[in-house]
């Protein structure tokens, strides 16, 4: 069965689930970890306030983009190094490990110096130079599924990272492009049991990008946990309509708190 084209990430090579440290936390173990925070780091108050808000609701890691690749070159591209510094400040204030996107090989080491967990975004899933470079870095990495990537392609991208020595890879389903036009993406929950049966790597789900509609995000948080996800990546902002990016798919604190209570109930029942 090692006839499967992926080897190191295959469950046949390593039957037991992978678990590893991210800052003080163990990812891939029994605990479902929720990574929450804004699409983009905007201001000190916004990111520190969000860190406190999501921590209170039960999130264990803080997300926030500092280097932001966007569809249009005219959209906000992130606060870059200033954004990293603000994330580090939020970590100092709350103790939460930080998750932030790495956009290219040129800035990888600068981002890796600050981040506890790297986020390799969907646009970069098949950026082989970046995959190889991330494979040389000793930081956990969340590998997001490309918008039109098959599960085999996701696993092969993970193989690139692990083959270079970085075994701390988390696979992340974040919605794919389908014929449906009412929602920007379609969350493919098939990916959760499929990836978990094919690979020993932890599988997270991003319900925010997965449906791209704020009101529907809590339902998909619940569904992802019921499907067996090891963790969630959720966009949260103190005032979503005023968020610089992704406000349409971002929860506010009361919405997030309520969704977390529901997720805990589901996690406790399975
Ligand atoms: C993100 O999570 O910040 C992000 C940019 O997501 P994606 O790469 O899945 O679009």
Folded structure, characterized:
Helix content is 37%, strand content 14%. The protein is an alpha/beta fold. It has helices at residues 44-57, 81-94, 105-114, 128-136, 151-163, 191-198, 207-211, 217-226, 253-269, and strands at 20-22, 25-27, 33-37, 61-63, 98-101, 117-120, 141-144, 169-173, 203-205, 231-235. It has an 8-stranded parallel beta barrel, surrounded by 6 helices. A two-stranded antiparallel sheet has the order 1-2. It has one domain: Aldolase class I (TIM Barrel, Alpha-Beta Barrel), CATH 3.20.20. It starts with 19 loop residues before the first strand and ends with a helix. Strand 5 (98-101), helix 3 (105-114) and strand 6 (117-120) form a beta-alpha-beta unit. Helix 1 (44-57) runs parallel beside helix 9 (253-269) and helix 4 packs across helix 5 (151-163). It is built from 9 helices and 10 strands. Phosphoenolpyruvate (PEP) binds at residues 39, 65, 101, 121-123, 144, 174, 206, 209.
* Main structural class: alpha/beta
CATH T-level fold name:
TIM Barrel
Task: Determine Rg (CA atoms, Å).
Answer: 17 Å
So how many helices?
9
The backbone outline, from C-alpha atoms, is globular
Tell me the helix content: 25-40%
Short précis:
37% of the residues lie in helices and 14% in strands.
Features:
270 residues, alpha/beta, TIM Barrel, 8-stranded parallel beta barrel, 14% strand, binds phosphoenolpyruvate, transferase
Give the helices and strands, then pairings.
Elements: E1 20-22, E2 25-27, E3 33-37, H1 44-57, E4 61-63, H2 81-94, E5 98-101, H3 105-114, E6 117-120, H4 128-136, E7 141-144, H5 151-163, E8 169-173, H6 191-198, E9 203-205, H7 207-211, H8 217-226, E10 231-235, H9 253-269
């Amino acid at each position: 069965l090692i006839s499967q084209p992926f080897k190191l990430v295959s469950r046949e090579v390593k039957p037991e689930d992978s678990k590893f440290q991210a800052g003080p936390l163990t990812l891939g173990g029994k605990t479902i970890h929720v990574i929450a925070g804004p699409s983009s780091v905007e201001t000190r108050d916004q990111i520190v306030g969000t860190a406190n808000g999501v921590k209170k609701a039960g999130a264990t890691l803080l997300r926030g983009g500092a280097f932001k690749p966007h569809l249009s070159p005219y959209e906000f591209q992130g606060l870059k190094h200033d954004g990293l510094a603000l994330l580090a400040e939020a970590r100092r204030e709350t103790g939460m490990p930080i998750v932030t996107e790495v956009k290219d090989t040129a800035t990888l080491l600068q981002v890796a110096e600050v981040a506890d967990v790297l986020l390799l975004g969907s646009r970069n899933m098949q950026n082989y130079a970046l995959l190889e470079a991330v494979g040389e870095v000793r930081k956990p990495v969340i590998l997001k599924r490309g918008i039109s990537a098959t599960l085999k392609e996701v696993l092969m991208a993970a193989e690139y990272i692990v083959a270079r020595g970085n075994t701390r890879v988390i696979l992340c389903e974040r919605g794919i492009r389908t014929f449906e036009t009412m929602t920007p993406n379609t969350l493919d929950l098939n990916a959760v049991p499929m990836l978990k049966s094919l690979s020993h790597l932890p599988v997270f789900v991003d319900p925010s990008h997965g449906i791209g509609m704020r009101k529907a995000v809590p339902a998909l948080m619940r569904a992802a946990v019921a499907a067996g996800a090891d963790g969630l990546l959720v966009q949260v902002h103190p005032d979503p309509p005023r968020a610089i990016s992704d406000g349409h798919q971002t929860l506010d604190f009361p919405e997030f708190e309520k969704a977390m209570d529901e997720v805990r109930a589901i996690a406790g029942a399975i």
